[in-house]
Prior knowledge:
Helices cover 44% and strands 9% of the residues. A two-stranded parallel ribbon has the order 1-2. The longest helix is centred in the middle third of the chain and has 14 residues, at 20-33. It is built from 3 helices and 2 strands, in the order ααβαβ. By secondary structure, the chain is mainly alpha-helical. The chain has one domain. α1 (3-9) crosses α2.
Amino acid sequence: MNEEVLARTGEDLPVEPVRTLDAIHLATLQILAEVLPDLDVVSADERVRANATALGFGVMPPRRVTAT
């Protein structure tokens, strides 16, 4: 955690509301993407996944389609 992460944590994200820890993770991802442009996100949390997708990250694992 550094000042840049803290500053980005306070910025609006595409899909709100976002929990504090999720905002920290997403801010960190945005910073890491500056040096790792092919970075993908691995998460099962739908809010994190929705924000990561909206921010242009690849998200893994792919969503499962369940039969109804």
